């Protein structure tokens, strides 16, 4: 296979990743190569891997507490989990994904980068996944499902006080106020939309953050 044509690295990447920048570069290479070959990334996405996918994922870091145990559900190509973990080495990361070819890619990335991330095959709502993952502080998700459905899937992973941090688009953000009663009934509290990643230029985005109540 010929080497993939890599997107231009933005100057902001150095500030986002610090001394982990070489690992971030390698992750982009893997996304542009194996990620495309395995069908995890569309070829048209390669030119904007940095801004649209990698730095966009790093923006989530603003909403994640220091030293948190993080599980990235429906991780797919490792977004936002892997860029988040590279930018925040204080975090402990588990990647949960049901599809075998995606799990294989996630394991490949972890091995290639020499990371000890835990890769779990399964769906977040499955009891075997909940038992394997154990208690976590934060669940992250990107383009997995509408919020009420997502909450239903990840509720078993969220101990009281743990947070769900989900990347959302502007249309989904506009719907959040109307979903608060349903999300509250599902056991969530302190539901808010936050703008994150202002220092990342075009990669800035929005997340919805909510906390599992003690009920």
Question: How would you explain this protein's 3D organization?
Answer:
One of its GO terms (molecular function) is rRNA (guanine-N7-)-methyltransferase activity. Its main location: cytoplasm. This is Ribosomal RNA small subunit methyltransferase G. Helices cover 40% and strands 23% of the residues. It has 215 residues and is α/β, with parallel strands linked by helices. The chain has a single domain, classed as Vaccinia Virus protein VP39 (Rossmann fold, 3-Layer(aba) Sandwich). It has a 7-stranded mixed sheet, with helices on both faces. Helix 3 crosses helix 4. The protein is globular, with a radius of gyration of 16 Å. The mean pLDDT is 93.
Summary, kept brief:
The chain is an alpha/beta fold and 215 residues long. The protein is built from 8 helices and 7 strands; from the N terminus they run αααβαβαβαβαβαββ. It has a 7-stranded mixed β-sheet with strand order 3-2-1-4-5-7-6, with helices on both faces.
List the helices and strands and how they pair.
Layout: H1 12-17, H2 21-37, H3 49-58, E1 69-73, H4 81-87, E2 92-97, H5 100-113, E3 118-121, H6 127-133, E4 136-142, H7 147-154, E5 158-168, H8 170-185, E6 188-196, E7 205-212
Parallel strand pairs: 1-2, 1-4, 2-3, 4-5
Antiparallel strand pairs: 5-7, 6-7
Helix pairs in contact: 2-4, 3-4
Helix content: 25-40%
Q: What is the radius of gyration computed over CA atoms, rounded to a whole number of angstroms?
A: 16 Å
Specify the biggest β-sheet: 7 strands, mixed
How many helical elements? 8
Name of the top-level CATH class = Alpha Beta
The oligomeric state of the chains shown is single chain
Mean pLDDT, all residues: 93
CATH architecture: 3-Layer(aba) Sandwich
Going by helix content, strand content and strand pairing, the class is alpha/beta
Shape: globular
Number of domains: 1
| Strand count | 7
Strand content: 15-25%
